[in-house]
Amino acid sequence: MTVVDAESRFHVLAVDDSLIDRKLIEMLLKNSSYQVTTVDSGSKALELLGLRDEGDDSSSSPSSSSPDHQEIDVNLIITDYCMPGMTGYDLLKRVKGSSSLKDIPVVIMSSENVPARINRCLEDGAEEFFLKPVKLADMKKLKSHLLKRKQQLPMAAAAPDKPPHKPDEAAASAAAIAEAATAQTDGIISDCSCSGSSKRKAAAMEQEVISSPDQRTKPRLSSTSSGLAVET
Amino acid sequence: MAAAALRDQLTALLSSMFSQGLVDEQFQQLQMLQDEGGTPGFVSEVVTLFCDDADRIINEIATLLEQPVVNFDKVDAYVHQLKGSSASVGAQKVKFTCMQFRQFCQDKSRDGCLMALAVVRNDFYDLRNKFQTMLQLEQQIQAYDPKQQ
Questions:
Q1: How many domains does chain B have?
Q2: The pLDDT of residue A5 is above 80
Q3: Any idea where the HPt domain is (chain B)?
Q4: Assembly ipTM
Q5: Out of A38, A179, B13, B20, which residue is the most buried by the measure of CB atoms under 10 Å away?
Q6: CB nearest to A20's CB, from B37, B50, B83
Q7: In-domain check, residue B149
Q8: Which residues in chain A are closer than 8 Å to B29, comparing Cβ atoms?
Q9: Is the full-model pTM beyond 0.90?
């Protein structure tokens, strides 16, 4: 586990069983001025997030916000898909099934372009799917997910014990979705509608095809502009 | 002037590695991350990790292929690992060879796998030599001008 650059605003937890890939993702994230913590397995990630037991932490019960408090404050999780033991998909399910962690955006990385896998991850709550090797341009896409969460954050901060699905919060998320949509951001926040997921899928698949000769200086502007624009 | 000559040598080596397809734009990205991040040892660290890892994996595969009954799934898992590491450092040629190798694993062909292993090994040794020369040149350049990198 390595912690670097504690000054920066967003803290990303990177999960990968390959040391080379951990080095790479850490470097990419550091270069994009994120605070980074890396771990080599899904179970270590959950441990770090304060979710220890194997049992279901009863996400259905609204009063379960206290038992699994977060050990460290993580703004986003980026995980490899293919890992021994707990896969990235398993980790995603655990995070999304936890009342205290479910709002943390999860991004999945994989070296294999398997459409069924990509869809499954996106439909089950992953924000994004990156094909490996991950590029600097991919890091820019993370910002939009982090900023979206920021918009929702004040409510959570004001009332941390609030049950996750109170009507007013749902309304607020809906408003945020509408706001995000009008602001031309990557509209969908928590629910992966078909159009949203296929758009992201397309973006992910595009990565293998696109390869501009001057990537060194201008990394893949095409994929960032294809439906993933953030700035307004 | 000696430092400039070494730099020319390094540039020539790197461009030949690209033109031969040994490395791809992912490797360029590592260099860019190193230069922009102000972390001089990054490429060296990742390349060294890759070489150690690849060497270990190739030996594991060789051992598996010597068994009387070959566990092709296990071989495939190792080749997949090697392919991933190669992709991450931009070792394009090794990566492509791994992709062909996986086909032989799926066909459960020992002869095919042994042939692919020989090719992967050859490609990897070739790349490792170049990487080693690259790192040596970088060290020599830095010795001339420690403030440069």
A1: 1
A2: no
A3: 39-144
A4: 0.92
A5: A38
A6: B50
A7: no
A8: 133, 135-136, 215-216, 219
A9: no
